[in-house]
Write a structure and sequence with these properties.
One of its GO terms (biological process) is peptide transport. It is found in: Cell envelope. It comes from Streptomyces roseirectus. Keywords: Signal, Transport. With 525 residues, the chain is α+β, with helices and mostly antiparallel strands. It has 3 domains: 139 residues, Periplasmic binding protein-like II (D-Maltodextrin-Binding Protein, domain 2), CATH 3.40.190.10; 106 residues, Dipeptide-binding Protein, domain 1 (Alpha-Beta Complex); 216 residues, Roll (Dipeptide-binding Protein, domain 3), CATH 3.10.105.10. The protein is 25% helix and 23% strand. Strands 1, 2, 9, 10, 11, 12, 13, 14, 15, 16, 17 and 18 form a 12-stranded mixed beta sheet that branches. A 4-stranded antiparallel beta sheet has the order 5-6-8-7, covered by helices on one side. Strand 5 and strand 6 form a beta hairpin. The protein is globular.
Length: 525
């Protein structure tokens, strides 16, 4: 749930979502007032779904379609391009029947063969940090006629419908998307609520209503323009000057605090705060001698002060995190706090001394400059100050823009590097499975046999996800034993919008991806 913080002297008491549904406002679309303009600091790394397991999904959700999706307010996926889907009794076969008359935005038929092609090419192309890792339980895809798709699984997997609902499994036409390579241009041919009318990389995506769309989305507007910003300050300046209507992803802590203030600068704006599921963490690369030393990793974990990061850098707009599974998800525990407790450089020194590790330990920490918000650089400076200040480490900081940063960690170039994670779907599985195994979202193999061979397979046999608590609690304990991943903080959700924009709160799906079609202009009070 979002809390609305009004930033004008006299403001509507109800939240955007409540007001938009109450009859005082029209949701008839933007009409002649022009497209709704959304600002974000999270630009796509690619426009081809087979190549992305990152923030590109924010665009994909709006221009591509999936077999299943999330209706407004739902936490379980329902048929979208599909008319119906169902598991076999043993959870090893999943069948979907398509709706009648589905078409892509270029008029091509969306049939069972197109679905099969869309899924098969993800694995055939096999981008190292792409979405193929989500399909580990899939054996093969079969078709029966034009409308039936059959997914044969190599093991029971109750989470498979969640996977099909992710933008990774976006549907694409076979003629236009090669089976063995990614598209390199800036065109999108999908069957989602919008068409991508134009695109300028790193600058702007212009979305217009797709007239041939058949799916769950009830579009409240006819067009949306997404503007990409390098930093939060520029985005907020555009909001205040009326050049964008709403912000999403990337509000820096300073700007959140500034937007909370009632003054002339913020007149006519509203800030909304809600629980978030995004996490940030450090990854230790075993290819690096220092990062591969478990004593070094444990000493870093014993030294880092998460509360100081949350307060000093993020001004309490995030919360300290002591597990890879965040608060609010089934089975969440705090194993990193249970093992290491409060930050203590003295204990960290003892860990290094007992392992006969010479100090200060040289470590190079990498971060991306343009993916997780404008405060990332400040966060890593604080981490460096904490580690250097202990006298146990000598830290060098390095950074790159996201597009080249991804290439670097795929090649295993970084000894220690920062990553963020937005869940693909609302289940604890998605905070464990993507980071373990030979092929994972980090490009850094991480074998934890007990998790990959026992706990995950066993949990995926359970349709009732309340029954998986013990398995995920054990998985969290196993991850803390060798500290290959070090969780730092869990984010909150902030949306800042012009007071005349409705639908902000209800626009976020369970993975907190913005469903642009929920936004509308208030046409009367």
């Amino acid at each position: 749930m979002f809390k609305k913080r009004s930033l004008r002297g006299v403001a509507a008491i109800a939240s955007l979502g409540m007001v938009a549904g109450c009859g005082y406002l029209s949701d008839s679309g933007s009409g002649d007032q022009g497209p709704i303009v959304v600002g974000t600091t999270s630009a796509p790394s690619t426009l081809d779904p087979a190549g992305s397991w990152d923030g590109s999904w924010e665009l994909f959700r709006n221009v591509y379609q999936t077999l299943l999706a999330y209706p407004n307010g739902a936490t379980a996926p329902e048929p979208d391009a599909a008319r119906s889907c169902a598991f076999s009794a043993d959870h090893r076969t999943y069948r979907c029947e398509l709706k009648d008359g589905l078409k892509f935005s270029n008029g091509a038929k969306l049939d069972a063969e197109a679905v099969k092609h869309s899924v098969d090419r993800i694995r055939a192309i096999g981008v190292q940090t792409g979405p193929a890792g989500l399909l580990g339980s899939l054996d093969k895809v079969e078709t029966s006629g034009d409308k039936e798709v059959v997914f044969r699984l190599n093991k029971p997997d109750a989470t498979f419908p969640f996977v099909l609902a992710t933008p990774a499994l976006s549907l694409v036409p076979p003629v236009d998307y090669p089976a063995n390579s990614l598209r390199k241009d800036t065109r999108v041919i999908g069957s989602g609520p919008y068409r991508l009318d134009s695109y300028a990389q790193g600058e702007e995506a212009v979305l217009v209503r797709n007239s041939s769309y058949k799916g769950l989305a009830d579009r409240k507007n006819d067009a949306v323009t997404i503007r990409y910003f390098q930093d939060s300050a520029a985005m907020v300046k555009s909001l205040r000057e009326g050049r964008i209507d709403i912000t999403y992803q990337g509000l820096a802590a300073d700007d959140v605090v500034s937007l909370e203030t009632k003054n002339d600068e913020n007149k006519g704006l509203e800030l909304h705060e809600g629980a978030g599921s995004a996490i940030n963490y450090l990854v230790f690369n075993p290819k690096d001698p220092a990062a591969n030393d478990i004593a070094v990793r444990k000493a870093v974990a014993q030294t880092i002060d998460r509360a100081a990061i949350a307060h000093k850098v993020y001004q309490d707009t995030v919360e300290p995190l002591y597990s890879m599974v965040p608060q609010g998800f089934t089975g969440h525990t705090t194993p990193y706090f249970d093992v290491f407790g409060e930050p203590d450089p003295g204990k960290a020194k003892k860990i290094l001394d007992e392992a006969d590790v010479s100090t200060p330990v040289p470590l190079t920490l990498w971060y991306t400059t343009d993916r997780y918000g404008s405060d990332t650089g400040l966060e890593f400076k604080e981490i460096k100050a904490q580690l250097d200040g202990s006298g146990l480490f000598r830290v060098t900081l390095k950074s790159r823009p996201w597009n080249t940063y991804v290439v670097g960690y795929e090649k295993g170039e970084y000894p220690v590097f920062g990553r963020g994670w937005q869940p693909d779907f609302p289940d604890p599985d998605n905070f464990i499975a993507p980071f373990v195994g030979q092929r994972n979202a980090l490009g850094t193999p991480y074998d934890v046999k007990r998790i990959t061979d026992v706990l995950l397979p066993r949990s995926r046999e359970q349709s009732d996800r309340a029954e998986v608590v013990k398995d995920f609690q054990e998985a969290q304990r196993l991850l803390v034993e060798d500290v290959r991943l070090l969780p730092l903080w869990q984010g909150k959700q902030y949306l800042a919008a012009d007071e005349d924009i409705a639908g902000g709160e209800r626009s976020l799906d369970p993975a907190t991806i913005m469903m642009m079609w929920e936004l509308s202009r208030k046409t009367s009070w």
